[in-house]
Design a protein that fits this description.
The complex is a heterodimer of chains A (about 375) and B (about 120). Chain A has about 375 residues and is α+β, with helices and mostly antiparallel strands. Chain A is built from nine helices and 19 strands. Chain B is built from four helices and nine strands. In chain B, the strands form two sheets. A six-stranded antiparallel beta sheet of chain B has the order 1-2-3-9-8-5. A three-stranded antiparallel beta sheet of chain B has the order 4-6-7. In chain B, strand 1 and strand 2 form a beta hairpin. Chain B is globular and about 35 Å long. Classes of the chains: A alpha+beta (about 375), B alpha+beta (about 120).
Chain lengths: ~375, ~120
């Protein structure tokens, strides 16, 4: 248990009072007092999101505007390409893309979303990294951009097959949006930024809303009987089934985007032979991984038994003896699969789908198999 | 005539002679959340008091269940292994974990009765 003064030092999102009134079980997360679950519980919250719609408070995440001093968004895009291996220049107005800040060793400092809002870029970064990200942006892009931390906004995710219908009642433009569309929209008359994206593998939206209107918007969405509040517990099991990385666990400063099996997120223009190849921190190592392969790789794992294989479990090639070949970085029980799911790193030579491995759980070696991700088919509206 | 006692680790023990039926309390299942996996000790194993005897896993986390008394495992609940959610629906009934033949009934002196346990979790 936390001492009282520790609890008091935790930050609160604009929806904190709502979480408490809904019976949320509050826990410390990335410096915030956040709901890990509501009275429905992780299992029901998870399944409800996959069959109906779930509302998540992700206001702890960082929202940053990169405003080009020239007024030309392509100048901000070009500047941001100094820090990420993605093609930012090619993001069309009204679209967003997944990206990573890399370090000089080719590791990942944070993963983020980058949207082109026409005259500036809008970034969403992880809560635990947001101060460091902001300092990083200021240190490297201040010549070209004003870095504007949007601390006066909350962020609400609405996810699941009924998210579109629920949002359409408050935002007539929502149904026409496609996966990874992003930009300013009115929601219930409030000036919001809406993207069609999320962290569950489901179709859905993320809505950036001014702090003053956040509680009213969340309550309006929750008035819809299809929409239930969902805590961080189900957020984690949903993203795990969707095969999505959790920063600080599945990716960190010691993993390159290639090792992390995120090659799809690095466009050809930034790779060897591309129009703007390299030019980001750690390019030498990351491009070498693209060109010659990396020694290890992030893989999905399905267990043969019912016992969850969790973060930290060592992976072995054989049922007894030998040295560990890798480790689980995220793992738990997948409520939709009704089975344990995990991801971790193994030597690339043992990363092929179907490879039989063993995970050590409480001293026993449990049979696991390298499996395709996502574990649950995603339902993005492309 | 059975008596039910409680440990500070949130196990219940239904005492019948020198045999105790052991499970986790309703309070414990509420703290754990949705239980998805239970691992029970082998029949015939001798458990020492406070030794990790079983594992109960929710979607979120794994927790050990400690032997509240020393003794030999006589029987385990196969129905619970097949349906771990019984812990949530009937923690102090159908979701018993194991039966243990107590080696030293003197160890029961350190356990609580229902009213003491209620005060402990209040």
């Amino acid at each position: 248990m936390l001492a009282r003064d520790d609890q008091d030092s935790l930050k609160r999102t604009p929806l904190h009072g709502l979480h408490v009134s809904l019976g949320g079980k509050m826990v410390p997360f990335a410096g915030y007092d956040m709901p890990v679950q509501y009275p429905a519980g992780v299992l029901k919250e998870h399944l409800h999101t996959r069959t109906s719609a779930g509302l998540f408070d992700v206001s702890h995440m960082g929202q940053i505007a990169l405003r080009p001093k020239s007024g030309k968004v392509e100048d901000a895009a070009r500047a941001l390409e100094r820090l990420v291996p993605q093609d930012i220049v090619a993001i069309a107005p009204g679209r967003q893309r997944y990206a990573q800040f890399t370090n000089a060793d080719g590791g990942i400092l944070d993963d983020l979303m980058v949207a082109n809002f026409g005259d500036h870029l809008f970034l969403v970064v992880n809560a635990a990294c947001k101060d460091a990200d902001e300092a990083h942006l200021r240190a490297h892009l201040s010549d070209v951009c004003v870095i504007d931390s949007l601390t006066d906004r909350a962020l609400i995710a609405l996810q699941g097959p009924k998210a579109e219908a629920a949002l359409a009642k408050l935002c007539a433009e929502a149904p026409a949006m496609k996966f990874m569309d992003s930009g300013p929209r009115k929601v219930a008359g409030i000036d919001c930024f809406v993207s069609r994206s999320g962290y569950t593998g489901e179709d859905g939206f993320e809505i950036s809303v001014p702090t003053a209107d956040a509680d009213r918007l969340a309550k309006t969405l929750l008035d819809n009987p299809d929409v239930l509040p969902i805590g961080l517990g189900a957020r984690d099991s949903l993203r795990l089934e969707a095969g999505l990385c959790l920063y600080g666990h599945d990716i960190d400063t010691a993993t390159t985007p290639v090792e992390a099996a995120l090659e799809w997120s690095v466009q050809k223009s930034r790779r060897t032979g591309g129009a703007r190849a390299g030019g980001f921190p750690g390019a030498e190592k990351i491009l070498a991984h693209f060109d010659h392969g990396a020694a290890r790789r992030r893989i999905g794992l399905l267990a043969q038994g019912r016992a969850p294989v969790r973060e930290g479990a060592l992976l072995f090639a054989d049922s007894a003896g030998g040295e560990p070949i890798g480790q689980v970085t995220s793992g738990g029980f997948g409520p939709s699969l009704n089975a344990p799911v995990a991801m971790g790193y193994v030597p690339t030579s043992q990363s092929a789908l179907g490879t039989n491995l063993f995970a050590e759980v409480r001293g026993q070696r449990l049979a696991v198999q390298v499996a395709a991700m996502p574990f649950v088919k995603n339902t993005y509206k492309r | 005539m059975t008596t039910t006692l409680y440990s500070s680790d949130h196990e219940w023990l239904a005492i019948d002679g020198d045999v105790a039926t052991v499970g986790i309390t309703d309070y414990a299942q509420q703290q754990l959340g949705d239980v998805v996996f239970v691992e029970l000790p082998k029949v015939g194993r001798t458990l020492k008091k406070a030794e990790a005897a079983a594992v109960v896993e929710s979607v979120k986390a794994a927790s050990d269940v400690y032997a509240p008394v020393t003794g030999e495992v006589l029987e385990t609940n196969a129905e619970l292994v097949a349906e771990p959610a019984l812990v949530n629906s009937d923690a102090q009934g159908k979701a018993w974990f194991f039966k243990i033949k107590m080696a030293d009934k003197g160890e029961l002196g350190g356990l609580m009765d229902e009213s003491a346990y209620k005060a402990h979790t209040a």
